């Protein structure tokens, strides 16, 4: 019989055990081994059955066992120690509190998904895991972050396979009362709520759930409340589900409702209000509109409010392809804003203008969430050096007249939260070398360029560690594979072969990620005979563990999964290659440490960062990857191998895949496998172990989320907070009025004549010439602009590369024609073909960059000095 109603029965803990509840509700347990060990000792069998979730564990332990523990003095001593450690962690000074300089009182960090732990399944892939690692690292560093997201009642989806290998999706209902979250409540005990106005007089209400991620509160909005109609209750049903309007409502709730949730949380708890708002991808971009509306209610006009909001906003883009960005029909967005709907005090046209693709190649009727994010954020970044470059090119249309390298999008390369992803065995090896506290500090705060202590670990210990981790992975794979085949309909008698799947002494390759086409899950199958030879090699075999989910609406991705599964089902190779369904955090934490090689073969440059290889590297796994994302930035032959690419513009896609697959096979056959199986005089693979050692010593400190968050604080959050404080209402009005005046008058700004003191077309390195420029400023004055000399090496078309800019100084004017003269030196600091030009940019003390307005005046053809080429 089926129950007509479901509710959660919470355990009543004996008084001495009450601290267990606090420990279970703070998600620090997910990366703190001592806390997990304590919970495991409560009841090891139930701990395993609860998949390592303390909330589920405490809900299943018998009263008799709880009574027994309440009288166990040894357990109570451990409980007191772990509770005291958490208290110290939550209240003590950390990196942020000891950092010099003016830092934000608080930062609000918005993301559509957060991967904190498998016990809180609110993520689909890399974006969510990155957001979770950002929160954990901020907690470890003491950064006063407030996370904001949605609570999806079905999460993303659970994946299984049909008998013929087709992906099947399942959406289990998540009961928040069974998750490590608690309702945010008003002083009278009623749930705190936020509301949005919808067309037709309807309302979208949402409760606020609080997940405590160490020191960082994570606010999660949930629309499944009785005050909503059926349709509105389903707004937060699934992550990345539904059609356009469904997604738009999710993003309005995340952005607008999220700001209101932050204000509510700060009111109820006394938490400092955020000075900086960080938008993790464009999904939360509407947060800027809500903040503009707040300021307009306080008396600012729209343009001034926009300047005030921009000053304290950071926008991070994660996608290198336009298809990865949410875009909505203009009319759909207009339908949800304005009179009788949301933000009625703001003109709908002003809202639309922020997101419209008003640049060459844009779709004029589409509202682009990333474009809005860039227009609402004074500071923006990509997530690796290469991705920053790709982003500048992709969004250069927003800054016409500027070369892509000057587009104001910087980069902060992603990192991963080492305490979450480093296997306990790896941590213990480090602790044995330098002590537990120093190891923990190295993995969380970071700050050093090298982990030299790794050099003192004996080869034998490193190799035994790697073998132990590989063996654990083999055991895990067999358990998961057996469960998968049972789901596919196989009987016990058919599954005896699984006991021989994988070998703890064989070179093990991992490949696990989402399955869009650009990640090329099946590139390894390009030449199946050659792959079979590698898998079955008599002296140097390889084995491969593959996992990944295709989006439910992506049949192309599902076909790739099926193709891989069918190959792995072949009795000839099924002991050497496996596909594990339902890839998630719990599987990943076993997979990364157990692999010897982490394979990544996307189409370059479509991988924005690709953090899975970082997690593998922290466990001594070597990377075998296309030079994309973070690997393009930090690859060295000491750390692994680079797969050559054939990414020229004229290369046929099928031909390119064939070339790159051949390169992959060649590397495996000729370099990777021989290096793994080669033995030195002590019977160990000395050269392989040295690569593991170099990976940990030199790459380990780079890939930390602690390093990433410190960069965000110093390079983006602190400047944004400074700009936010400077942008008081008077300054905001001043800047808005100045921008309007400059835009209106810019047509009158001209470069009229350029001359230098250079007498010849050749000169010696280190020479300095005088530069004299005559400009027209129209209705503007010298205080409104900066006149610059831009110089550098030139290509055959006279385009300046690697440019140096020098501000010129006014030397006289205005003359009778209203022209001004600017002068300055031009230093020749490099050899070869060299050229210069002159340009005029807007200048104001409150601008983050002269490029910000997208306005520039340059010489017309033939304005003096032969177009500015000095030497050839």
Automatic annotation (TrEMBL):
<dbReference type="GO" id="GO:0030170">
    <property type="term" value="F:pyridoxal phosphate binding"/>
</dbReference>
<feature type="domain" description="DUF3417">
    <location>
        <begin position="13"/>
        <end position="120"/>
    </location>
</feature>
<dbReference type="InterPro" id="IPR024517">
    <property type="entry name" value="Glycogen_phosphorylase_DUF3417"/>
</dbReference>
<dbReference type="InterPro" id="IPR000811">
    <property type="entry name" value="Glyco_trans_35"/>
</dbReference>
<keyword id="KW-0119">Carbohydrate metabolism</keyword>
<dbReference type="Pfam" id="PF00343">
    <property type="entry name" value="Phosphorylase"/>
</dbReference>
<protein>
    <recommendedName>
        <fullName>glycogen phosphorylase</fullName>
        <ecNumber>2.4.1.1</ecNumber>
    </recommendedName>
</protein>
<dbReference type="InterPro" id="IPR052182">
    <property type="entry name" value="Glycogen/Maltodextrin_Phosph"/>
</dbReference>
<feature type="modified residue" description="N6-(pyridoxal phosphate)lysine">
    <location>
        <position position="615"/>
    </location>
</feature>
<comment type="function">
    <text>Phosphorylase is an important allosteric enzyme in carbohydrate metabolism. Enzymes from different sources differ in their regulatory mechanisms and in their natural substrates. However, all known phosphorylases share catalytic and structural properties.</text>
</comment>
<dbReference type="Pfam" id="PF11897">
    <property type="entry name" value="DUF3417"/>
</dbReference>
<dbReference type="InterPro" id="IPR035090">
    <property type="entry name" value="Pyridoxal_P_attach_site"/>
</dbReference>
<dbReference type="GO" id="GO:0008184">
    <property type="term" value="F:glycogen phosphorylase activity"/>
</dbReference>
<dbReference type="InterPro" id="IPR011834">
    <property type="entry name" value="Agluc_phsphrylas"/>
</dbReference>
<keyword id="KW-0808">Transferase</keyword>
<comment type="similarity">
    <text>Belongs to the glycogen phosphorylase family.</text>
</comment>
<keyword id="KW-0663">Pyridoxal phosphate</keyword>
<keyword id="KW-0021">Allosteric enzyme</keyword>
<keyword id="KW-0328">Glycosyltransferase</keyword>
<dbReference type="GO" id="GO:0005975">
    <property type="term" value="P:carbohydrate metabolic process"/>
</dbReference>
